[in-house]
Amino acid sequence: MKTRKDANIQKHIPKPRRNPRWGKEEETNIFAERVKLFRTGKLSEDDFRRFRLQHGAYGSRLQMDYSMVRIKVPGGEILPVQLEKLASLSEAFSIGSAHVSTRQNIQLHWVQLEDVSEVMRGLVEVGLTSREACGNTIRNVMCSPLAGVCPDEQFDSTPYSKAIARFFLRNPMCQNLPRKFKINFACCEKHGLVRIADIGLVPMTKDGSQGFRIYLGGGLGAASFIGYLLEEFTSEEKLLPTCMAVVRLFDRNGNRENMARNRMRYLVNEMGWEKFQKMVLKERSIVMMTTAQSTESMFNLSAEEEDQYLPKENRYGTKLRMFSERNSSNTNAYDRWVHSNVIAQKQAGYYTVFVTLGAGDVTANQLRVLAGTIRELSMEGAARNTPQQNFAIRFVNGNDLPEFFNRLASVGLSNPGALTITSAVGCSGTTSCNLAITNSHRLAKEIQYKFLELGLDTDDMLFDSTIKISGCPNSCGQHEIATIGFFGGASRIGSVMAPTYTMLFGGSSGERGELGRVVMRVPAKRVIDTVLNIIEIYRKERGEGETLRQWIDQVLRGEAIGSIRDVEDIKRALAAVVQLPPVDQQPESYQDYGSDVRFTAKTAKGECAA
Amino acid sequence: MKLKRSLSMDSQKKETLSGRGSGLESEYHSTPDTVCDVNTLSVLIRKKNVRVVDVRKEEEYAKEHIPGAVSLPLARILEKESPTHCIELLQDIGVNEDLPVVTYDDTFGALAARVAWTFQYIGHQHSSILEVTFSQWKNMGFRTEKKSNSYKWQPHPLKINQSIYADLAYVEKVSSNKVLVDSRERLNFLSEHIPEAVNLPYTMLRADGRVLSKGDDIRRFLQNRGIHENSELVTYCGSVGTLSGLVYYGLKLAGLKNVRLYARSFKEWKALGKPKTEFKDANYWDLSAE
Lengths: 610, 290
Prior knowledge:
The complex is a heterodimer. By secondary structure, chain A is α+β, with helices and mostly antiparallel strands. Chain A has 4 domains: 4-15 and 312-409, Sulfite Reductase Hemoprotein, domain 2 (Alpha-Beta Complex), CATH 3.90.480; 25-125, Sulfite Reductase Hemoprotein, domain 2, CATH 3.90.480; 150-306, Sulfite Reductase Hemoprotein, domain 1 (2-Layer Sandwich); 425-590, 2-Layer Sandwich (Sulfite Reductase Hemoprotein, domain 1). Chain A has 18 helices and 21 strands. In chain A, strands 6, 7, 8, 9, 10 and 11 form a 6-stranded mixed beta sheet that branches. In chain A, helix 2 (25-39) runs antiparallel to helix 3 and helix 7 crosses helix 9 (273-290). Chain B contains 13 helices and 12 strands. In chain B, helix 7 (110-121) crosses helix 12 (243-253).
């Protein structure tokens, strides 16, 4: 017999989404043809590389016969049928698992160059594309995974992010920029990577009309900058002209000579913000006066909005015990998971579930189970991938959470801690990247494993802290916006080279985001103990109700109240733990994670700037 | 010849027959020496003009199997892999030279392929693998049975077909037209493989719901790799030629004429200390989420 509650839930079952058609069939065949031309020497290596990157295939570590195919997920929104296709493609052409990146891409590694066109063919079927995921173009347009459900947001920025992505994809105006270009949308001032993008946008309403606070010229890399606020309020009508103006200015004035300094943030820095700001505003008026209607119509917000059906509140939903409840590592697995992976939405009765991955890795089988779970238990019938390398599945009924948990548990996806310090971020590192010096990917997984074992996900005082790791100074692991960040390098210790990380403190994301500050170097095999030591010191030293993150900020300002007052104090306190015993006593301490041979810093030329 | 005609006739009837089981429109054109589609098999079973061979473990056969099937686990073929032993097994399940054989398993077709290839190697040309696994057959709604079947001994001559077989000497022989195909998954291939081998993982030739993709797709994969119909291919895998057996049938399905199986595969190659290509500059195994 059907109860009223069942009937209500029935009504909310979402209609299947349209195929979003980001991909194009003809590009598949062209790619296959170009590979043949390249292999038979009829296309030069440079020309082919540019073409390949434009289509999202990046060379693999010291093995150019293999590619990493970077699949864009515009706005981070991904459908069950797409996850299933990724599962099949990863089994057929990759390594049987996929990798969620820090910019809401999904990457397939070690794809043979000859098979890239086949991956593209599969992507087109489900409306995905790898076009302009690499190369000097506008990369995947990001959007906060909480957009549309965040209690603090003014309005849902998702359709805007997708409309902007669609406007610039294959647009002649951004096919050959001086360098890559990144656009990030937030939901509110807290969530989103708006200060570390070329264009970062926070939705806001003013006098009843919608618009954005727009930040320009931020970005992470070997040298990082925090973006500047263009103006107090940019109205919705000016969204497209502003973006176009910035892209045009960068295209015209950006540095095309020095590959190491040609992101837009360098241009802004060299020119000075005031001058750049004036130029943007002037260029925007020109854009507004001269843009043809046919061009403007390519920015089709209503088409994206139509597809963005979100359920309203769920009157029959249940309330959950949330963060205020006490938890410990003895708490049963389900409660522990709810505590650190589930948050309430602005729509009463609905919850967003974060699915814990290990540094973004997900197997084909897990993707399939995830797809089925989303289809049946998310009332919007879609998921978001997050910059923390997890999945967020929204509009889940409180009643369905136990079932959700059980399904995840059946494929090893029910780890807690997705929203805590245990969920360490790691770029792909020496698992596949030409530039990597260390295996940041494996280190992130080791941290997660160890910290979950220690139950650190249950300590609410660590809740707002993050750990992010890059395998080189280039910041794909976003180490500069972590509470405790690390980037990889190589150091001579005694007479031997060892993998080491430079540790940074106090980075943060969101609209008030700040870059972390370098503290000290730590050997790779001492990173876990060093972080545990920091936590131990913090627990002794903290003020009343002070979280780890707050305490670290105090230390950075030299204002901590205990025996550790500033960065110099903490460096002294950690001096012992970062020491390695002599190499003949403990040779494995001089090896990197995932390796049992002597460490050498082997890298090849990066292709980001090709 | 007579057999081929009767099979293609059955294939033409497919449209009227499909829908019985599952409504599946078979995308294969059934051929008597590669892959047999479910509808063709149903017709052959009804006409009692086929020997269906279940290569799973005996216990699994005892529980349930395709109607009329006999049990012949792969292990029995492998326990003494001499052609005389294998021809006796074939005679014991009542197969003469003219009776088509269709093998199946529940291990994505790899075990069935190894057995079907063995039959072809000892001289039974019309031996094919079923396009689906036993589980898929069942899920499609086709009939199964429990009773154990045995058939009267039939004579079958032993005619070794060297043209589909490769031993170590053959693999080592230098030839410009020969392509070694490593059928293992990508990470295994990257770790180590026979020098000059190309990687065509068995997972690449699979399709959703079937043990092999369409011939056209496989042909395109090969063309992308610059491998053409007149190339000579030798498949191998990690141990006894199961994964590479499946790839052998995939390549036949794609229309390649000259395909051989290196049945002793990489296991023998490694045991003999033959040269290998290894790749150690990346920690790619750490990417696997297992």
